[in-house]
Amino acid sequence: MSTTNQTPAAQPVLRDQLREFILENLAHPKGVTSFADDEPLMETGVIDSLGVFRLVSYLEDELGVRVSDEEINPETLKDLNAIEALVIRKRKK
Amino acid sequence: MAYILQQLLQKSAARYPKKLAVWARGRSISYRELEERSNQLARLLQQKGVRKGDRVGLYFPKCVESIVVMLGVVKAGGVYVPLDPQAPAERIGYIIGNCGIRALITRADKRRGLDQATLDSLDFTLLLDEAPQPSDSSAVIPWTVLREYPSSSAPTVTLTEMDLAYILYTSGSTGRPKGVMLTHQNALTFVEWCAEKFHITSDDRLSNHAPLHFDLSVFDVYNTLEAGASLYMVTEDLALFPSKLSAFMETQEITVWYSVPSALTLLLLHADLNADKLKRLRTILFAGEVFPMKYLRQLAERLPHPDLYNLFGPTETNVCTYYKVERDLLPGMDKLPIGVACENTEVFAVNDQDEIVTEPGGTGELYVRGPAVTCGYWGDPEKTSKMVVPNRFQQNFEEKMYRTGDLVQWGEDGNYYFLGRRDSMVKSRGYRIELGEIESALLSHPSVKEAVAIAVPDDIVGNRIKAIVASHDGIHLVPAELQQYCGTRIPKYMIPEAIEFRTELPKTSTGKVDRVQLAQESLQVVLK
Questions:
Q1: In this predicted structure, what is the pLDDT of residue B528?
Q2: Is B49 helix (H, G, I), strand (E, B) or coil?
Q3: How far apart are CA A46 and CA A25, in angstroms?
Q4: Nearest CA distance, A13 vs chain B (angstrom)
Q5: Which of B263, B272, B480 is closest, CB to CB, to A33?
Q6: Which among A25, A42, A50, A70 is the top mutation candidate for probing chain B, defined by the most B β-carbons within 10 Å of its own β-carbon?
Q7: Which residue from A55, A57, B57, B457 lies 20 to 30 Å from B161 (Cα-Cα)?
Q8: Binary contact (A28, B479; C-beta < 8 A)
Q9: B17 pLDDT more than 60
Q10: Which class in CATH covers the domain with range B425-524?
């Protein structure tokens, strides 16, 4: 397991939710069955050009956070940790 | 006039030594440096035993060294084989074996993914990123040793324009990828045509959006070198983020852009493509798939100034036809033409009576003749003889032509129009996908009895892949398991994104799987 999480054990529910969405909708169709919290999802091809937008629609439609085009970048969607941090940050605003 | 690719660099390095040649990931290299580094690499390769015609694999994510490697290999007389850094290691292993790659230039993490038999088959590996581990054999060489080789000139090798320059692997219908062999002449025929058609000059700044194993990149790389222009490489991570990508186009002041239409569609839909901020962008080229008219019109509206060109052609000929978009005609146009033959190439449609179509409105298979046509598929004379055939339409001398497998119509307006394929090859994000290769991957799973792959048309990426599978004795399979299995054999863009299971697949009266029925059923069910 990764230890790079900056909000330790804060949102196990959110993280599990995100992981489940990514696994089912993005990773499985790419032949990937598991990934670590700090695994670079774009470098490994789990998230592709359409995947980015499926993920963002999920964040907006299901998790209720509004993400601007500028916020969609290699840093904010790098890995599960980063995606979780993005959602938490947006929810605080 | 150049007859081998490295002369393009040689000429520009002499003329613009200090000019930026290539930029990637925040690093850049000047023309002089590119010339010197590639000379050093050529000398290293030659000293390690690479001889004329030997294949050298290029297996790492894009960076400035990608271009050093391409040029270094051809300067050593070798043939470079760009390998998809995201493809499964099993497929890379197959390609390395298939074309007998003996020298591999890669990164440590990529090397670690390859199996032992593949590693053992290599004479040596050049590692770009880190020093070899003590456990590595002497056949693993660090990139830093390049410094020890003379940079002032490349080794002497006799090459003609008929020698191979690179091999590009594309999806193969029989279940394995096939290597399209391209000579220096094949590449230069296209490069010289582009140089003239698009007036590339040393003031230009070209993007490189396509991966290097994709033939769109031939234009980016060599037309930059030909003109003494600058190349800005769009790395894999950048390509996924439209707003970053449009910012890249702005900051790097790209003047000539070339990509698959789906990349432009994503930019349109998810980035602030602003004509005021892209003032220097003068030409947009697209190829690889059909550009949906709806999005092309939007692109033309959003960017009212650049020239827009639809380029068309398979890897086997690179581009063979082109169409310059006439903006005035766009509103009333329902289908985008693939246009007319490039001026140094001849194309014609051959109908079912095996005659060349001479009347507007006639349809047939597109054939291509001229110096851009490949000499065939590596190690596959049988496949070559089916596709690269003697020109039976003239008897005066022997020559070959290429059967594209594309069905086209010769329009009243003098342009050709693409109608579809004669076989089961489809495009997704511009990638060639043979449905047979996907089916073969599925069928190699021990529990799979029958499998059919189907392309479901999609507005943005061209096609999305679905599979319908029946298992042996009703063994329970789940999509994720089969998708994971496919992921070990075929690239991610070929893995079916939806898999439907049935106890049996429908059959035609002759007992074959009824693909037509399955395809029609799939069209009615929208992919999740």
A1: 42
A2: coil
A3: 10
A4: 23
A5: B480
A6: A50
A7: B57
A8: yes
A9: yes
A10: alpha beta
Query: What strand order describes the sheet that includes B256-259?
Result: B27-30, B20-24, B230-233, B205-208, B256-259, B283-286, B307-312, B321-324, B340-341
Domain positions in chain A: 19-31+52-93
3-class secondary structure, B447: coil
Q: Are the C-beta atoms of B501 and B483 separated by less than 8 Å?
A: no
CB B258 within 8 A of CB B214: no
Partner B contacted by A76 (CB < 8 A):
no
Cβ distance of B484 and A32 shorter than 8 Å: yes
Considering only the beta carbons, identify the residue of B86, B242, B429 that sits closest to A45: B86
Residues 6+ apart with CB under 8 A from B336: B290, B291, B293, B296, B310, B323, B325
Tell me which H or E stretch contains B113.
helix B108-113
Structure tokens, B524: 């009615």
Q: Which helix (H) or strand (E) holds B480?
A: helix B479-487
| Closest residue by Cα to residue B247 from B274, B209, B283, B220 | B274
Domains B198-312 and B425-524 agree in fold: no
Out of B90-104, B149-163, B421-435, least confident range? B421-435
| B463-486 pLDDT, tens digit each | 999 999 999 988 899 999 999 999
* ipTM score assigned to the predicted complex: 0.71
Amino acid at B112: R
CATH 2.30.38.10 assigned to B313-421: yes
Q: Mind listing the pLDDT tens digit for each residue in B52-68?
A: 999 999 999 999 999 99
Question: Helices (H) and strands (E) in chain B — how many of each?
Answer: 16, 27
The architecture (CATH level 2) of B1-11+23-159 comes to 3-Layer(aba) Sandwich (3.40)
What pLDDT was estimated at residue B146? 96
Q: Helix B31-47 to helix B64-75 angle, to the nearest 10 degrees? A: 50
Q: Distance (Å, rounded) from C-alpha B280 to C-alpha B343?
A: 27
| Range B198-312 has CATH code 3.40.50.980 | yes
Q: Which chain B positions have a beta carbon within 8 Å of A54's beta carbon?
A: none
Which pLDDT does position B148 carry in this prediction? Answer: 96
Measured from the Cβ of residue B142, the count of other Cβ atoms closer than 10 Å reads 15
List chain B domain ranges. Answer: 1-11+23-159, 198-312, 313-421, 425-524
